[in-house]
Design brief:
Layout: H1 2-23, H2 36-41, H3 50-58, H4 62-87, H5 93-99, H6 102-121
Helix pairs in contact: 1-3, 3-4, 4-5
């Protein structure tokens, strides 16, 4: 029963988030939070542009989403596979373990660091 309540709450929050990000453009609406790292340092963090990228993706503007935050857009397939692995964890434990291995997390951390440096230097 508790699990059903949690999943229902997650579904409701996710639906509201999708509707809000579809309806309102983060680049023109002051409702969305601004990046404190960028405001403080003038450098873009790995997440900078994510809100605008989500808005663009929800409108089918993949190229604009890539311009806003390519790391987010290119990470979505990985997130989808990780969610499937979690869902199939009991049936395919090897698949789950392979995707949740330390080297995967380290590789993603390295990619994130390289992405952050590159987007601020180039």
């Amino acid at each position: 029963m508790r699990r059903a309540i949690v999943w229902t709450a997650v579904a409701i929050v996710a639906t509201v988030a999708v509707v809000v990000y579809y309806r309102y453009d983060p680049s023109t609406t002051s409702v969305f939070p601004r990046c404190l790292f960028y405001a403080t340092t003038g450098y873009q963090c790995p997440g900078c542009g994510s809100q605008r990228a989500i808005h663009a993706l929800l409108h089918g503007e993949v190229l604009n989403a890539l311009r806003y935050n390519a790391l987010l857009v290119l990470s979505l397939p990985l997130v989808a596979v990780l969610l499937v692995a979690q869902w199939l964890r009991a049936l395919k434990p090897g698949f789950y373990r392979a995707l949740n291995a330390t080297w995967v997390a380290v590789a993603y951390l390295v990619v994130t660091i390289v992405w952050t440096i590159a987007r601020n230097v180039l």
